[in-house]
Structure formats: C-alpha cells, structure tokens
Amino acid sequence: MTRHDVWGAAVAVAREGRLVYSRGFGFADATTREPVQPEAVFRLASLSKSVTAAAILELIEDGLLSLDDHPFEILSDLEPAPGASVDPRLAVITVQDLLEHAGGWDQGISGDATVMTTDAAEAFGLTPPADSETIARYALGIPLDFDPGGRHSYANLGYVVLGLVVEEVSGLSYEDFVRAEVLEPAGVTTMRLGRTRPELRAPGEVVYHHSGSAARLSV
Length: 219
What we know:
The protein has 219 residues and is α+β, with helices and mostly antiparallel strands. The chain has helices at 48-61, 71-74, 95-99, 107-110, 117-123, 132-139, 156-170, 174-183; strands spanning 8-15, 18-29, 34-35. It is built from eight helices and three strands. The longest helix is centred in the last third of the chain and has 15 residues, at 156-170. The chain is globular and about 50 Å long.
C-alpha cells in the first residue's frame, strides 16, 4: 500500500466456500482518518465488465439475443447530439465486437467517452453528470478509430452500450436484471450500482481521493 500510495484496502480469503480471513487496512476516509472495516464497501470498477458480460450471455442462453446481433440496431431509438454526424460503421458493430473490445473505439486516439460526463450532458442541455444513455447518445457523434472487428482496443464505451442492450432486450433496468439473473443465482446479495455524486455514496462505502487531473470526473 505504501509503495503504490493506496490509502485503504480490505482483504478477504475464503477456502472451500468458508470465509477464513477478513481485515481492513488503512483509511476508509483519509481526511477523517476513519479506518477501513472488513465489511467496507469498495467499487469493482472495470471488474464489473464481467458482470455485464454474464448478463449478455444469460440473454443469449435464453434465446433473446445473439453474438451476431447489432447493438445500435437494437438501440435504434438513440439520437445523437444536435448537429452531430453518425459514423455509418456503427451499424455493423456486433455484440461480440463489444464483448471483445473490438467495436472500433481506441481510447488512446479519440478518448474515453464514458468519462466525458460533463461534455455529454451539456451537449443535450442536461445537468451533469450524464447517465449511460446520454453518454451513448453523445458517443454516436464520435467517429470510430478503426473498422469494427478489425482489431482489439480496450474501450469502456462498449460495455456502456452492452448495459443499454441488457435493458432494451430484457425490459428491465440493468440493476434489476443483473440482480435477478446473475447475482442472486450466485448467492451475491449486497452488490449495488455505484453513484457519481459523493452524497449518494452507499452506506459503508469508502471515500475516494482523486488527483487534480480528475476534477472534471467528480462533478
């Protein structure tokens, strides 16, 4: 933790389905010096992509979706920002492309639309931060960096789109579908969606400390 400047962490070890070790280290809030408790709530960040992937595969297993389906055809009601031009290659992206980070976005070239929460909201005259649908609509106006399926490049945006596909195909909110079809069958009962604003932090959730470069992410 000292080497990597980590303020707080929690460690749990299970063996054969039984919790054998659980302990918090450091601070849940570096400002108040509140210690991390073993049951402290931390965010999964991009590990949540595996949860979204499981939800998509559940829909495929149920015959409601296929890997060859086109997400932006399913989400045909999404409208771009006023005056934005839509890259026609968006229409050929498949569900499999998004699962495999081959949708056509390269965050090193065009940036990561999922953190453009202020720009996306303002493009539609909304109050930041933008929600997932608004981010996807904003991204419709960002040209692809390569042909879909042409190569792999890690892209958060693809999984935002997959989350919207889950909602459209299932008829449920992302949270409700994932809880009923992915988490509860696995015995997971306390996982929840993270919220953007600090005042909406979940009970027992740690406080996150960002550098000045992340100021626009913390709206």
